[in-house]
Design brief:
Number of strands: 17
Shape: globular
Number of helices: 16
Bound molecules: acetoacetyl-coenzyme A
Strand content: 15-25%
Distance between the termini: 41 Å
Structural class: alpha+beta
Radius of gyration: 22 Å
Amino acid sequence: MPVGIDDMAIYVPKLYIDSKDFAIARGIDPHKLEFGIGIYKMAMVDTNQDPACMAANACLKLMQKNDLKPQDIGRMYVATESALDESKAMNSFVIGMLEQIYGDGSFEHAGGIECKFACVSGSYALYDNANWIRAEENNDRAAIVIVSDIAKYDLGSAGEYTQGAGAIAMLVKENPRLVIFDPKVTSTIIKNEYDFYRPFGRETPLVNGNYSNYLYLIQVKKAFDSYREKAIKTKLIQLQEDESITDKIDYISVHLPYRKMGEKALAYLLRHEWRCLPRWKQIIEEVGMDEPTPKDPRGTIESILADKDFMKADETFRKAFMRTSFFKQVFEQKMASSLEASAIIGNLYTGSMYMGLRSLLEFEYKKNIDLENKRIGFGSYGSGSSAMVFSGVIQSTYKEIVKDMNLEREIGERSKLDMQEYIRLHSNEGKMNEPILNSNNEFVLVKIGGNTDYNAGLREYVFSN
Ligand code: CAA
């Protein structure tokens, strides 16, 4: 049964920090953020916004634009790493908000959970819901998967310029208009790691930055190896001797903690895929140096990272590889459009790869490229750590949806924060009932908890007209 993403809707908060203002305030060269990280604007939530109301706003847009009634929806999952409660799931808050519009109890027939595994959990949520439909447990109903997060790092930390916020709601159903997931090839990898984590009670994560970058590359590559094996075994993809599986995948969309990470992930995958092919000789000529190998090629990630000579040589090689005509052509054709949104929104954790998909569709369509039957390979990564690689094919009906996509219009008029306002917001000094912006046609948070055990932690939201 063909199952996949039928439509998607986004919600991005209108406040943002400009990367130049930020760089100047922090004494960083603005070129580092523009080119080294790939960020121009980072979306920030107002004092009356949280991940649940962003999720509800994206979901309401999705339902309204598709004229969906609660009865059409059998499951609603929210994937997030910005949980609001240790027990109560974020989708229950979302249901509460939506029932303010659709009526008390209108979603009672449905089900769903909050999913957590850092940035990869949205992909697991999509996979589980696609299988719920494939198993025909859905009673003709669709599922909605929402990914919603606030990427917030400590003031003054290296993660601070990889922040962002937003939500994406995706409609998952049979015979979808946008993308059908390829069956029997989804591949995962999992390992206990501490590259990025947020212990109970902390608002910001503890991050081992370079380790997390490297682990991301390795884990996605491993999941990709397993995807390749399955794709060949199931004959989804057939390869000639001098072909790589990346030649047969039209687009590559990966987790985007920041724009540049997408480029690095593509470079890592292509090096891995091309190394054994005849074209590698020409590539090495263009690079102008041999590919370095670590002293202990079978060593652990830690031992390889500690191999300073190798790491230095490998960085030089990677940068030169990324300047070759081979890399540039694949990058422009298969990835560049998926990175546009990341540069003006920032990290969305669970949502970042799906904002990338949204960006890919919109910006490739604007180039007048025919997307019908094009295969997209997805490389999803969650710290902690797990990676999921899967693929899907764009359907002939995609234009119905994609023609109306307009990122700037959908975000709406944005408002730049000055550094003082940003620090006030970041330090949670703003008051919920004194937001910076007036809200219009959206859910906002109006109250948290009370003074008694009975009502502590209760969150109240209203739809503000
Ligand atoms: N002009 C142009 N480029 C410059 C420059 C300048 N003046 N100065 C530096 N740069 C370049 C550097 O050369 C480097 O480029 P390459 O990556 O191509 O080598 C780039 O800017 C980044 O600079 P640094 O290597 O000095 O890195 P940093 O100390 O700024 O840290 C980071 C970068 C590790 C990503 C940090 O921002 C961080 O810890 N972020 C949070 C963790 C994270 O996002 N990890 C990603 C993988 S884990 C994950 O994906 C899960 C998740 O969502 C968090």
